[in-house]
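Hey all, quick one. A colleague (J.T.) asked me to put the DP6 job into the tracker so the inputs and the structure tokens live in one place instead of scattered across chat threads. No bug as far as I know, just bookkeeping. Sequence used:
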Amino acid sequence: MTVKAEIESQEQGAAQARAHSNIALVKYWGKRDKQLNLPATGSISVTLDALYTDTAVRFDPELTEDQFRYGDGSWQTAEPRLTRFLDLIRAMAGTHGAAWIESQNNFATGSGLASSASGFAALALAGTQAAGLTLSRTALSMLARQGSGSAARSIFGGLVEMRRGTEADGSDAHAVPLLGPDQWPLSVVIAITDNRSKTVGSTEGMTRTVETSPYFSGWTDSAEQDLEAMRHAISARNFEALAEITEHSCLKMHALMMSGRPGLIYWNPATLAAMQAVRELRSQGVPVCFTIDAGPQLKAVCEPSVAETVERTLKAIPGVLETRHSRLGPDAHLTGSPVCS
Ligand code: DP6
């Protein structure tokens, strides 16, 4: 029987959850503590309805090593990053059994679409529930953060702020919801310009930046100003202000990435052409702006009424392979069992 089938048969020690991916408008890049994965700055994101990860977990007292499989693939001994994360859950629950973990994204993994965000958020929820724990969303967010910083935000739907926190133990470094998905309906159109996995992942890229960029202090010193301005833009539903801060934070992060040694360049010609097309649309009065993460895909944030125009424009750019459209998505939730508190 598969893990999912056993969960459907209500077996104890098992649970499954869905968490949606998210895209930061005010970016996170750099850590203040690598061990606890504490961010050097806060960040603000939108959770995406169309992109998610489903994860099923079953603890098995007979099993000695955690086992993982992606989709219908074969079972493999789980990678250390996964086992370390499950160790946190085992320590909280006081259990020792290893786990069977099945996970699947409804989008390409490692293509700059934030699979670690939805992946660790889904694992935090399914894993704690399978271990017999029912955590608050704040505690879930702190746990998810230790898997991946951006995962802390995917515990919540809509518009979300990740708090940097100041405590050394990370007890105040978690996400909080700003607005629910229906309180300010927005669309995100993603332009995929390369399907290959990125060459330098976020965790490694951040370390390089923190250690070698002369601009890192400028990045951390100016973060609170961006966060404050974005909070205002969100509470006023001011798209123009949101657009200006989003592009500023994105371009500032990429300038920072480029200023390390060796510098990180995540864009390709199609990324740049898409950036220019978005700016051209905005100059014509279309409410749209861009953001780009540690990869070459462009994410256009816009008002839903112009999503079709934005998608058509991006699709027509040479080098844009495909586009995806998403509205804002919900909180991470259990599937097949009651939603956690
Ligand atoms: C560019 O959350 O993937 O997407 O904490 O090391 O797992 P780790 O990094 P990760 O970094 C995300 C970086 C980003 C910006 C953002 O999502 O805020």
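Adding what we noticed when we looked at it: Residues 24, 27-29, 37, 43, 116, 148-150, 202-203, 206, 293-294 surround DP6 (CB under 6 Å). The longest strand covers residues 43-60.
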